Amino acid sequence: MGLRIQHRIFERDNLPVEFSPAIMEKFRQLIARYPEGRQKSALLPILHIAQEESGGHLRVDVMDFVAEMLQVQPVEVYEVATFYTQFRLEKTGKYLIEVCRTAPCAICGGEDILDRICSRLGVQDGETTADGLITVQSVECLGACGSAPVLQVNTEFHENLSLEKVDELLNDLKKNAETEKDGKLKWAEKFC
Amino acid sequence: MGRKILLEKIDIPGINTFDGYRAEGGFSTVERALRSMKPDEVTEEVRISGLRGRGGAGFPTGLKWSFLDRKSNNPRYLVCNADESEPGTFKDRFLMERNPYLLIEGLILSSYALGSNTTFIYVRGEFKYIIGILEKAISETRKKGFLGKDILGTGYSLEIYVHSGAGAYICGEETALLESLEGKRGNPRIKPPFPAVKGLYGCPTVVNNVETLASIVPILAMGGMEYVKIGIGRSTGTKLISACGNINNPGVYEIELGLPVEEFLYSAEYCGGIKNGKELKAVIPGGSSVPVLPASLVCRTASGEPRLMSYESLADGGFATGSMLGSGGFIVFDEDACMVRSTWNLSRFYHHESCGQCSPCREGTGWMEKVLHRIESGHGRQEDIDLLVSIAAKIEGNTICPLGDAAAWPVASAIRHFREEFEFHVNNPALVSNPRHISFAKHSQVHV
Amino acid sequence: MFKVTIDNITVEVEPGTTILQAARQIGGEVVPPAMCYYSKLKGSGGKCRTCLVKVAQGSAADPRPMPKLVASCSTPVQDGMVVQNITSPEVIEARKAIVEFLLINHPLDCPVCDQAGECDLQDLSFKHGMEETRYVEEKREFDIVDIGDKIKLHMNRCILCYRCVYTADQIAGKRVHGVMYRGDTAEISTLINESINSNFSGNVIDVCPVGALTDKTFRFKSRVWFLNPMNAHRNCPSCSGKVTAWMFGNEIYRVTARKDTYGEVEEFICDECRFEKKNKSDWTIEGPRHIERNSVISANHYEKSKKPSIIKPLEEKTEAPE
Q1: B352 within a domain of the structure (yes/no)
Q2: In sequence order, what are the residues at sequence separation of 6 or more whose Cβ sits closer than 8 angstroms to the Cβ of residue B73?
């Protein structure tokens, strides 16, 4: 028996894809940054925004929508969305905790941080809590090795972690879940 | 106290705002260059300065710029590589966060020299907040007339755009970066043709690292002749070193190239020595892709000379007893670090980040990771150690891009210098069955 | 014209010719094997690394050797270039390495694979592979799926040459499949429930160097070496109608495009010719097709195959310790 890789087939859910006029305008601005006929260049920035606006993962319908907007074949979007680790095709918790697992963090206790989060939440690496609130995912180097160990919550950095800080962070996330809509940093606001 | 030219003003309050930066003399090189220098004169200063690419390869920047096809009728592009993903490296992030206008100024100068009217900054997607900082800096600079159409009335026009990656180390490779910028998978291109001839959208393109482009500002300010005096030999100027791992003061330091490694590692001004009073075990001096140096070869070369922080001295002894300056990601391991686990960890990184396009890297990185994981978890065989050396040798030099070499070198060097640790793992499966917290230092106490 | 010397044989070629194409002009043993390069598909090549060669002299003007082995399929020749293919122990060693890499996750299920006998990977392993594997880890396994109405995808066997992707882009029109994910989990897939659907889709089977994409209408029908390849043609409104009909007695078991010495199709054919026309009466049979291969496919045929020559003089050198 080998290492089995499921040939995962995604389905179109045929639900309408809609973005607010402000987001649509942002898409147009992003496309306009690239030379004429090179609108495909805007794919990565647009997918970031589209993913965030559609609740943290990319549905097939959303990818098709983006493909049509950029006048490319849908498969070109799928190829890109599956290549880059920040794009998620599966449903993700409201908070995506990405814990760095690469050597500079690991030798400073990064592995213990991941263990602590998983055991506190009762999930394995890569899983989402039953309430759909938090997804834990170990990731490769986040480029903040000087303040190891580090993690990101919805791409917001938390650095110089200790087990106590992690406990505090998890408590905060649970507390904030009702008040705060999602992560603080919005992709759409980053590109001005 | 070493000379600081990139981080000289980093602690001045407000330096991260346009006005604050301008008050400290910011953008004066742009005024001078655009008004009184020809683009080729800017390039000439860079050539004279001896500046070498700060992203890792250390290729002379002036020479790289000279390769740009200036006869082509197509537009020319400058692309700034801010996809800083090399484990152990976080200098560009620091620079962009704390002094974004220095990069913008460097980009204007370099774009002018190269004749680029559209310049992109490719920032890794994990640095979302940096994207916001850069966007703001660009729009401020634009408002003040240093970007946009007809800058300062000189007739030169330039737009700078920020582009985001989305989680792929391979996009730090310049042709993979260009593919990604074109909205494709980050598969490195087959070379030739090189980007200088056919780069972004098939047009002549130069891709440079953030620190390289920021260094253009002091080079123009002081002149190439002055810059070349800083540093040692062919390692001119200063370099940002990001120090991390088991040291007292992790962080980003600007050093004059030629600083003794011993001073960098132990003086309170820099790393401040090993954390918790432990012994040094090993250093990876230039980001995870370069060969690891055992403690005995960190401060001195094999011939007994003091080891210096320079391209040449760190490479002294070749791969047998040397390493590389690389991107300046200085990772320090103390006596408790398990080199087998660390090597497996890095191997997992390269396996995870391989684009999968060419067979040696796609298959070889995964193979190495599996074998290392087996050894690490107490299921290693004696022959596995030589097998790893053989796999690494078969990947090295046979791949499309340098990721294959980068995956092979850490494994080959760790086995070269720490073979006894690998053998210990093979010979003592029971002791390493729960390996995370058991280091070799502790093993040997049990063992001896 | 540029003069280029490959394994001590000099040939004159047009500027812009790649080393591999120059070698093909010479022909025979000096031609590097190619698993991903396909002269009829733009952008193909450079990926599998089986065609690596040593450039001992860059050009007459700049005689320095190139520091690394180069992919002959994507490196253009220079005037006065000196290339070593089978005369370089380094190249032979690298090729052995590549075969090993290509095989570690390959299922080696040749006994049940329809491609066996005409498989480029099989030929390559036969020539450059090792007798025993050094790979003791678990192999990667994918589910077997239908990627088209009449096309089966065995992802386990795929070597990610990208040929089928280029074919879909350049020959078959609208592309619905591609390479998903990355690294060693990369797979050929449509990602969503969609099948390759174009009148030229079947060409992905012909360009596939291994048994990853196979013809469902021929699945498990016969081993290819039991069939007689015959040149045949018909008046086809959508393609040239020139094919190879693989026959057993009077029955046509399968139809493929006509392939040249290097396994490349002479002309792409349409799906109607390939999948629908299986009666002898559909075709004008021209006569037996000459198969110029050293592999098992030609073993049972009207012509005696040449025995694959092993590069004897190099044996000692290549087996010397590192």
Answers
A1: yes
A2: none
Average of per-residue pLDDT across A97-124? 95
Is residue B7 domain-resident?
no
Candidates A4, A5, A80, partner chain C, best to mutate (most C CBs within 10 A): A5
DSSP annotation of A150: -
Segment B397-406 shows an average pLDDT of: 96
Global pTM reads 0.94
In a domain, B11, yes or no: no
Interface contact A5-C191, CB threshold 8 A: no
Q: Would you list which residues of chain B are within 8 Å, Cβ to Cβ, of chain C?
A: 168, 185, 190, 192, 351-360, 362-367, 370-371, 374, 387, 390, 393-394, 397-400
Maximum C-alpha span of chain A: 52
Shared domain for B134 and B261, answered yes or no, is: no
Chains A and C form CB pairs within 8 A to the count of 61
* The residue to which tokens 């491609």 are assigned: C115
Judged by DSSP in three states, B195 sits in coil
C100 touches B: beta carbon within 8 Å: yes
Number of domains in chain B: 3
Q: Which residues of A touch B75 (CB under 8 A)?
A: 35
Residues of chain B with Cβ-Cβ distance to C105 below 8 Å are: 363, 366
Does residue B389 lie within any of the structural domains?
yes
Chain C residues with CB under 8 Å of B393 CB are 322
Please enumerate in sequence order all residues whose Cβ is within 8 A of that of B353, keeping only pairs 6 or more positions apart, or say none. A140, B85, B168, B169, B170, B403, C183
H-state helical runs in A59-139: 60-69, 74-83, 103-106, 110-121
What is the ipTM metric for this complex?
0.94
B59 and B99 belong to one structural domain = yes
Tokens of B146: 């240093």
Backbone phi and psi for residue B444, each to the nearest 5 degrees, phi listed first: -65, -30
Which subunits sit against C, judged by 3+ Cβ pairs under 8 A?
A, B
Distances (CA, A) of B425 to B59, B372, B422, C134, C136: 39, 10, 5, 20, 18
- The chains in contact with chain A, meaning 3 or more Cβ pairs closer than 8 Å, are B, C
Full domain range(s) for residue B344: 339-447
Are C102 and B359 within 8 A, CB to CB? yes
Three-class SS string for B147-178? CECCHHHCCCCEEEEEEECCCCHHHHCHHHHH
Domain boundaries, chain C: 2-97, 110-298
For residue A153, the Cα-to-chain-centroid distance in whole angstroms is 9
Any alpha helices (H) in B116-237, and if so which ranges? Answer: 128-143, 174-181, 210-222, 224-227
Binning pLDDT at 50, 70 and 90, where does residue C314 land? very low
Name residues whose C-beta falls within 8 Å of residue B18's C-beta, 6 or more positions apart in sequence: B26, B101, B137, B140, B141, B144
Closest-CA distance, C133 to chain B, in angstroms, reads: 12
In a mutational test of the B interface, the residue from A76, A107, A108 whose CB has the highest number of chain B CBs within 10 Å is: A107
Q: Name the closest residue on chain A to residue B242, using Cα atoms.
A: A146
Contacts of C24 (CB under 8 A, 6+ apart): C31, C262
The identity of residue C101, as a single letter, is: F
CATH number corresponding to C110-298? 3.30.70.20
Whole-angstrom distance, CA of residue C190 vs CA of residue C170: 17
- Give the nearest chain B residue to C75 (CA atoms): B192
The CATH fold of domain C2-97:
Ubiquitin-like (UB roll) (3.10.20)
Residues of chain B contacting C52 with CB distance shorter than 8 Å: 398
- pLDDT band at residue C149, thresholds of 50, 70 and 90? confident
If you classify domain A95-176 with CATH, what class do you get? Answer: alpha beta
Q: Indicate yes or no: CB of C182 within 8 angstroms of CB of A6.
A: no
Q: Considering only CB atoms, which chain B residues are within 8 Å of C74?
A: 190
Is pLDDT of A3 > 70? no
